[in-house]
Predict the structure.
Amino acid sequence: MSPKIIFYATIWCLTGVLASHAQQCGRAPLLENRIVGGYDAAEGAWPWQVDITTQTDISRHICGGSIITRTWVLSAAHCFPNPSDVGSYLLYAGRYQLNGYNFHESSHRVKQVVIPNGYVEPHSGKDVALVELSTPVTWSDHVRPVCLPNSGTLFPGGMLCYVTGWGNIRDDVPLGGVGTLQEVQVPIISQGSCQEMYRTHPTEPVDILHDMICAGFQEGGKDSCQGDSGGPLVCQMVNGTWVQAGVVSFGLGCAHPNQPGVYARVTSYSGFISDTIPDISLYGRADQNWPWSAAVFFSCLSTLLLQLQR
């Protein structure tokens, strides 16, 4: 094999390794200067955000979701009351405004919805859904996957995270105008503290189960709301990667004192997710990114060495 061929083959190997990282999860390249405490998200800030609509008489926003692979979206089970009937759903990736022109958006029908066995209603837990798209999304700066955590990833109380969606801005007050995607920063609340807060309302008891995670403020004021269901609660890890800690599930009203938002805890469903989508990589594993790209490189390298020996 000539030196020129070896050179180009090596470049091809390295290109394969770089391509393996081309859509690394949990990266939002268009958002280097977020304004903390704002309400309207910057366009492209949350490239994994999905708008879930029903197409019956009119197109209607019902829930949010998050892109986790080119063909799978994570959402909430209660967004799909009849998961075997998926004909009326249409999902939008790359959407920024509900009522405006979205240059980067694409629409996708649903192939299937997978929910955990035994799901009944949000207060009983298991409020997650894996939604397979009929057609894959196309990666771009405005459409990227969020990272999902493995079962050992920790989101401690006080950790600041973001929840995003197109839901109501107050109880029974829908998002107005062009319907720009909203973001709010909220801290994680420990399971014990969250349970204590909800115990102050004995007339409507809520049990914070092991597969739930809470986020918000004891005094209220910032929260997810109706219409945000299924959307992501994401936290930025020390290496800058955004990882989804929760799926918007339920609350008592919106942003009321001692009633923080309750989310499905994604770490409780790492097995369910991996069983349903075997090729997904979960954040937190030591082999999350390097071995796969290394395998690409060393496979190429082995081929080169074999050729040199001929």
Observations:
- The first strand starts at residue 49 and ends at 55.
